[in-house]
Specification:
The chain is α/β, with parallel strands linked by helices. The protein is built from eleven helices and twelve strands. The chain folds into two domains: 120 residues, Response regulator (Rossmann fold); 144 residues, Rossmann fold (3-Layer(aba) Sandwich). Helix 2 runs parallel beside helix 3, helix 5 runs parallel beside helix 7 and helix 8 runs parallel beside helix 9. The radius of gyration is 22 Å and the shape is elongated.
């Protein structure tokens, strides 16, 4: 059984500190401190998956915590959630600029606190996995991407390129992690016409306006799952476009929810590029077979 994720909780209000610790202790290993100085020392000595920090703590704000997190090696760097009872818009702008993943207005209900931490941990796990694999994926992308020379982009070349693009299979890639999305897109564009959405709202807009042959999507983006996006896709007249879901959830709950929503397949991460391309091909072949059968 994997070790529980480790959380660093920082708040100078002892009541809030005890309350948040009691909420998080149910699922995670929590170090709870009220002194930002002690928190900085812990960050220098220990590895955390997520930092949950108050913003205003006496004469200090959370910028020192965020600076310390930024200095941590990328593959060991925790995600940061900032809590504040102050102006969430102003503080949020500064905290996001310094690297915070999310800023939440206090008081915060226990279900929302847990949901936000789970989301942060999902991003942390994703980032750790991709940081380890990124160099290999980028090398693969560089080796398989061959762009024509500038002189080849004449009027005739552009016309041929447009025709070839129309002939390609159109894949919608939905992922809020820009680095992993860019790496995947660079590989998949060798065979497919790839469109990218970083939010479920963007994905639903593309679904409503553009031709698609397959959707490859994360199940959770922020606090929103892909069920509404799949419903929007199924609402298209005659649409049986296959949806492949990716998730870090190994419990099977996401798979069940995705299949109930109408997904064709759920893949548990990490997934190799070769396996992903194989499953995309299988989904497209199955779709082609269904289309042929319905036509006859």
């Amino acid at each position: 059984m994997p070790a529980p994720h480790r959380i660093l909780l920082i708040d100078d209000d002892p009541v809030v500190l005890r309350l948040m610790q009691s909420i998080l202790d149910v699922e995670f290993e929590v170090d709870a401190v009220s002194d930002p100085g002690i928190a900085l020392g812990l960050l220098a000595r220990k590895v955390y998956d997520c930092v949950l920090s108050d913003w205003l703590m006496g004469a200090q704000d959370g910028s020192a915590i965020l600076d310390a997190v930024t200095s941590i090696r990328a593959d060991l760097r925790p995600t940061v959630i900032v809590l504040t009872a102050g102006d969430a818009i102003t503080i949020g702008s500064e905290a996001h600029h310094l690297g915070a993943m999310r800023v939440i207005k206090k008081p915060i209900a226990a279900p929302l606190a847990l949901a936000c931490v789970r989301e942060a941990l999902s991003r942390h796990d994703r980032g750790t996995s991709y940081a380890a694999a990124r160099s290999v994926l980028e090398l693969t992308a560089r080796q398989t991407t061959r762009l024509p020379a500038g002189a080849a982009y004449g009027r005739r070349s552009k016309s041929i390129a447009r025709t070839r693009l129309q002939d390609k299979t159109h894949v919608l890639l939905v992922d809020d992690c820009e680095s992993s999305c860019a790496i995947l897109a660079s590989v998949l564009t060798q065979r497919y016409a790839v469109r990218i959405a970083h939010t479920m709202g963007e994905a639903q807009k593309i679904i409503g306006e553009q031709r698609l042959d397959l959707v490859l999507s994360e199940w959770m983006i922020g606090l929103t799952d892909a069920s509404r996006m799949i419903s929007a896709l199924r609402a298209r007249p005659g649409s049986r476009i296959p949806v492949i879901i990716q998730t870090w959830d190994k419990s099977g709950k996401t798979r069940d929810a995705a299949e109930d929503a109408g997904a064709w397949l759920t893949l548990t991460k990490p997934v190799s590029i070769a396996e992903l391309e194989k499953q995309i091909q299988c989904a497209l072949m199955a779709q082609s077979s269904r289309t042929t059968a319905s036509a006859t």
